[in-house]
UniProtKB/TrEMBL annotation:
Name of the protein in question: Sugar ABC transporter permease
The ABC transmembrane type-1 domain, residue ranges: 58-414
Cellular location(s): Cell membrane
Entry similarity comment: Belongs to the binding-protein-dependent transport system permease family.
SUPFAM superfamilies in UniProt: Hypothetical protein PA1324, MetI-like
Phylogenetic lineage: Bacteria, Bacillati, Actinomycetota, Actinomycetes, Micrococcales
Length: 424
């Protein structure tokens, strides 16, 4: 007995210092105020459950528990099965498992950078902006406006021709208000549009400005550049759009297939709005989805390796017997493989539940300060209340007790599962 006690003593001391004492102290501290001097009883718990931030944290934890364990377990199962059917399984395993080698903080920094709203910094929005511009997204020239006394008028942000035009006419647009450096790199010297045919209207849209104040206002030439990508539409007297075109690199455009007229030539307001910048991934609406995606990216490799170990230990003769009896691959998977893997799948699933209930790193690192209240979870809220400006360790301890109560049942289930497997 003395020998057993001597060997167990170090472990018991560590458990007492690192587990038992913090739990007991948190329970005691949750009954006192922020200073730790006045006894409040269950006052901190009442405050916790009437605080909107706590409800937001609980709601987000529910979303995490409902989405992440199921998704990661299914992805791990799919990847584990694929590893047995592809020739480059080792490379596939390395690619999927590699994120597990990255710390949670580093992974959070990676995802925060990749999903920045500025397409010059964020890879996600850079891709979306590239796709948008490739499929019909025209150039945008914010703050551009027509030069005065050039036969055009601004109405509702759009630029209209002053005179009604008939087919075969020319309508030019001399614009100012932007720097020459803001033009696309594809812009070339503006040229005078040729006289259009009897069923068309054409013209030139150019930046009526040259560095140094050179050139004649309202006229093409003297090194002035065309403005490519601008949409030009022809409207009839009722305001209906009859035809449209986009300007070329030299600023010229041509709208064909027109009847006699009259028409108003219009540069829609969309030409002068801010350019498409993608999606606000890290805004309050989508930030939780981005954080969940980062977690799935990291932990799918863990689930894959755990389930693959279960597959490697499986008795394959049962699968072969089912195939010999005429079962297809889906039936073999559903009736043989999945039931035999159920102990591993349950362990992975419950482990993920415990892990996501106490998630902190990714939620704290990825959201910007403006979006953190919308993405907060219980662990982050506990830290914020206790040390992140709240300085109320009493309320923070109450949140830690709540987190313990939520995690404890799943830990007990996992321990019982391990004992059942050991007894078998």
């Amino acid at each position: 007995m003395w020998a057993a006690a001597a060997f167990l003593a170090p472990a018991l001391v560590l458990l007492g210092v690192l587990v038992a004492y913090p739990v007991i102290y948190s329970l005691w501290r949750s009954l006192y105020d922020a200073a730790g001097t006045n006894f409040l009883g269950l006052g901190n718990y009442a405050t916790m459950f009437t605080d909107p931030a706590t409800f937001t944290a609980i709601r987000n934890n529910v979303i995490w528990v409902a989405v992440v364990p199921v998704t990661v377990t299914i992805l791990g199962l799919i990847f584990a099965v694929l590893m047995e059917r592809i020739k480059w399984s080792i490379a596939f395993k390395l690619i999927v498992f590699m994120p597990m080698a990255i710390s949670m903080v580093a992974a959070g920094v990676i995802f925060r950078t990749a999903f920045q709203e500025n397409p010059q910094l964020g890879a996600a929005n850079a891709t979306l902006v590239g796709i948008h511009d490739a499929f019909g997204g025209g150039a945008a020239y914010p703050n551009a406006r027509p030069r005065e006394d050039t036969g055009t008028t601004v109405k509702g942000g759009a630029v209209f021709s002053d005179e009604a035009l008939s087919a075969g006419s020319v309508q030019d647009f001399a614009l100012i208000g932007i720097a020459p450096d803001a033009l696309p790199t594809s812009a070339t010297a503006a040229v005078t549009a040729p006289t259009p045919a009897d069923d068309a209207i054409g013209g030139t849209v150019w930046l009526d400005f040259v560095k140094g104040g050179l050139g004649t206002p309202g006229q093409v030439g003297d090194g002035k550049k065309g403005m490519p990508g601008i949409e030009v539409v022809a409207q009839d007297v009722s305001g209906k759009v009859i035809g449209s075109a986009r300007t070329a690199n030299d600023g010229t455009y041509l709208i064909t297939g027109l009847s006699t007229g009259p028409y108003s030539m219009v540069l829609p307001a969309s030409n002068f709005s801010a350019p498409y910048q993608g999606i606000s991934w890290l805004g309050p609406t989508l930030v939780t989805a981005v954080v969940i995606l980062s977690y799935i990216w990291i932990w799918a490799g863990f689930a894959m390796v755990m389930i693959a170990s279960g597959l490697s230990a499986m008795d394959r003769s049962l699968q072969d017997a089912a195939r010999m009896d005429g079962a297809n691959e889906w039936q073999v998977f559903r009736r043989i493989t999945a039931p035999l893997l159920s102990p591993v799948l349950i362990v992975v699933f419950i482990t993920l539940i415990v892990n996501v209930l106490k998630i902190f790193d990714l939620v704290y690192v990825i959201p910007p300060p403006s979006s953190l209240p919308a993405a907060t979870v219980i662990a982050v809220q506990m830290w914020t209340v206790s040390f992140g400006g709240g300085n109320n360790q009493g309320l923070g301890s109450a949140l830690s007790v709540l987190l313990l109560v939520l995690v404890l049942p799943f830990m007990i289930i996992n321990v019982r599962r391990f004992r059942m497997d050991r007894e078998r």
